[in-house]
Write a structure and sequence with these properties.
432 residues, alpha/beta, Rossmann fold, 2 domains, 7-stranded parallel sheet, 17 helices, globular, disordered C terminus, binds adenosine monophosphate
Length: 432
């Protein structure tokens, strides 16, 4: 099955090939043809399944067929978090590179000046979080009257984060003559009810949970003091992680330190991150691919280009502060149905990140209780963690995330919680 055969225009097929995708994922295979026909969609899929392209590609194509000379806001993608908004914006940039379409990303927590300027210049697509979108609508900076294509992404997380009233307000500003693509990893009753009000005779596309990348990876978690992480890493690399292993570090500096420490233990590893020259990165990747380098230590940004088969283990030396990053990281292993193992280390300060990750993947990562470096600090009982996982539960702080910083799009905010090793800062959920 190729992207061609889904009915996508050559400009989109070319952009997808540039992105290195060889074939559509199951959700793309099912969703794209239906969405191209103009049907409403009810998609049940979690992050990591390729769902962004499943809605972005048909949306771009439908829009490209329709777009008038003067740009009008024809499409709206609503998503719960700024990180997702930034990622979706990047996807539009990637997939729409050969099309003459304009889009922008709108989220809260940053100045609205650049966002308002972009809107004034005219865009065809807006990717937004609900709070800032409503704010700009109320102040007259954008009008949804012409929107013909509406995507609601991660509806269940909107519910978790208390955004459903805002979502309903946005929907009231849309006309009923529109195509709606609705995505949610789970379908609790309020989400099902919302879908019923929004969708007209939808095609249902579901990716069985068992087939998702996340589920193909065996995941394990070690609670460990920060000071013992390097020892634990050495032990893992001398033990079960004896094949091609990718180690993730949140910071460049951290990646260098890990490599040094491994060297002292007699393990050869190479770091790749933004401070390395392109030729050093290319060399490291080639070495990793051909087996000369067994252990690669990467930051999230540097790892984006890594598409290496046969990575047996992914080790999260640090937990990412953006939960989607966890899914992207562990998706580097268990490619093409092969077995893969993802081992994560979590120190006291990273516990809030763990809560976020488990909420996103809708599962509990197996804890390894019996190991050589148990944490010295008191561990919260599992019941504590469980109560924190419930929305609004005691201490259910989401880590605050700094604004994405790359260019006008912001990056994914991944891997650059770099700053001082202060650990997660906690705070109430940020409204978009
Ligand atoms: P998503 O579920 O949309 O967050 O996508 C998860 C990851 O899969 C992203 O890094 C995408 O770039 C990547 N991806 C999406 N579609 C494909 C595909 N057909 N082949 C390979 N990678 C893909």
């Amino acid at each position: 099955m190729s992207f061609d055969s889904l009915g996508l225009a050559p400009d989109l097929v070319r952009a997808v090939a540039d992105a290195g995708y060889q074939q559509p994922t199951p959700i793309q295979r099912d969703a794209i043809p239906a969405a191209l026909e103009g049907r409403d969609l009810l998609g049940s899929a979690q992050t990591g399944t390729g769902k962004t392209a499943a809605f972005a590609l048909p949306l771009l194509q439908n829009l490209n067929d329709r777009v008038a000379q003067d740009p009008k806001l024809l499409a709206l993608v609503l998503t719960p978090t700024r990180e997702l908004a930034a990622q979706i914006g990047e996807s539009f940039e990637t997939y729409g590179r050969y099309l003459d379409l304009y889009h922008t990303v709108i989220f809260g927590g940053v100045s609205d000046k650049a966002q308002i300027r972009k809107l004034k210049e005219g865009v065809d697509v807006v990717v937004a979080t609900p709070g800032r979108l409503l704010d700009l609508m109320n102040r007259g900076h954008l009008d949804l009257a012409d929107v013909e294509l509406f995507v609601l992404d991660e509806a269940d997380r909107m519910l978790d984060m208390g955004f459903l009233p805002d979502v309903r307000r946005v929907v009231r500003a849309l006309t009923s003559r529109r195509q709606t693509l609705f995505f949610s990893a789970t379908m609790p009753d309020p989400i099902r009810a919302l879908a019923e009000t929004l969708l007209h005779d939808p095609v249902t596309v579901a990716v069985a949970r068992v087939a998702t990348p996340v589920d193909l990876v065996q995941q394990r978690l070690y609670f460990v003091d920060r000071g013992n992480k390097r020892r634990l890493l050495v032990e893992l690399l001398q033990g079960e992680a004896d094949g091609r292993t990718l180690v993730f570090s949140r910071t460049k500096h951290g990646a260098n330190r890990i490599v040094k420490e491994l060297g002292r233990a007699g393990l050869t590893a190479v770091a790749i991150h933004g401070n390395k020259s392109q030729s050093a990165r290319t060399r490291a990747l080639a070495g990793f691919r051909d087996g000369n380098i067994r252990v690669l230590v990467a930051t999230d940004l540097a790892a984006r280009g890594i598409d290496v088969e046969g990575i047996g283990h992914v080790i999260n030396f640090d937990l990412p502060n953006v939960p989607e990053t966890y899914v992207h990281r562990i998706g580097r292993t268990a490619r093409a149905g092969a077995d893969g193992v993802a081992i994560s280390m979590c120190d006291q300060e990273e516990r809030a990140y763990l809560v976020d990750i488990e909420r996103l993947i809708h599962s509990h990562i197996d804890r390894v209780e019996d190991h050589r470096y148990p944490p010295t600090e008191r561990l919260p009982a599992f019941t504590d963690l469980d109560s924190r996982r419930k929305p609004g539960g005691q201490g259910s702080g989401r880590p605050k995330r700094g604004p994405p910083r790359r260019g006008s799009w912001g990056g994914r905010g991944q891997g650059r919680g770099g700053g001082p090793r202060g650990g997660p800062r906690r705070g109430p959920p940020r409204r978009g």
